[in-house]
Amino acid sequence: MSESKPILFEDFVPGALMGEREEVYDAAQAMRWQSLFGGAGAGAAEAASMAVISMMRGYLNLVTPRPPGNVHARQQLKMRGLPQPGESIRVAVRCLGKEVRRERNYLELEVRGCGAQKRALFDAQLTLIWAA
C-alpha cells in the first residue's frame, strides 16, 4: 500500500473547490453524543454538535493527506439551520486564500454544509498554518 504525498502549500489554489462529500447524522452518531452528554432528546445542542462534527469530518476527509505539523489557528462558524436525525449533510471545502506571513504559510478554507433540498446548515472559515 503506497501513501500519497501530502498536500503542499503551493498546491492550494484560491477560489478552487477542493471537494465535496456527504456526511449523515445517523443513529450511531447520536448515540455516541448522548453517551457523552446525557440521554436522548438533547435536541438543538445535539443537532448543532452534529453540524460541527460534519464540518470537521468534511475538512479532514477532503483535505488529505496533510503534512505533520499544521496548526488549526482559528475557526469561525455560522449556523444557518440545524440538521435533523437521519439527514444527509453535503459538505464542500473551498480554498478562499493563502499568504505567507512572518515566514509562515497561512490558509483560509471555507467549509459549507447543506441538508435536504440544499437547505443551508453552516458556513465555516478555517484559518490554518500549513507546515509544508
Automatic annotation (TrEMBL):
Domain of life: Bacteria
InterPro entries: HotDog_dom_sf
The protein's name in its UniProt record: Acyl dehydratase
Origin species: Acidovorax bellezanensis
